[in-house]
Hints:
By secondary structure, the protein is an alpha/beta fold. It is built from 10 helices and 6 strands, in the order βααβαβααααβααββα.
Amino acid sequence: MVSLVLVRHGETLWSDQGLFAGWGDAPLSPKGEAQALAVGRFLARKRFVFDVCHTSCLSRSQRTLEIMLEGMGNPAIPAERFWRLNERHYGALQENTRLAVADRHGHKATIAWRRSYRAQPPPLETDDPRWFEQRERFPDVPEELLPRGESLEDGVRRVEPYWWDCLSPLLRAGNRVLVVAHTCSLRGLVRILDGLSDDETEAFRIPTAVPLVYELDDDLRPLSSYRLHDDVKSRWRDLKNRYKPSWISWI
């Protein structure tokens, strides 16, 4: 049996402002840093031990992992970054508020771009300054693979090569792995692990800083999976996230 723990990064300053983040480099808020420290300490109390950690190439997940490892008292655990673990790319919506997008494009379109499995947001144009900035931040990613906008499905599919080429070989070798990433990339991993349908994948949600633990057999089939709550606040975040109304575009 081998363990895999999935954690979504802590809350960010952009989420407090209702901004679409995507591949934008939104920093953690003080609240998000506190969440990361709390979950790291909680995992230590629960005696979780990891051989390797993976995170995305976005600072909010990297900083969450850094603080978590400090909270666990083991900042020296090897950590690797993978661009395929980045959040879904929100295209031209990035760095705009959800309210502004709903006012400009209507609630129906905004809800589809946020919640629908296959609806793609308006892409970044190749003359957009955000596109040039993105290319500079990810020089090691072939330009033809850099997204200019992704549906939920696109973001989920992007994770598949990471699973087959990177994560599953580590797990098969018996490594205990911690992955700190984003809703969409974690959704892609859960889809593979649990064999989710398109509708089930679309409905999947994970709150900030609440670990999702998998115990896997030798064939990487889940023997069990569960969420770890360290206090009332984390339980409330989980409930609020799971039952957040899907027909309101600005929350």
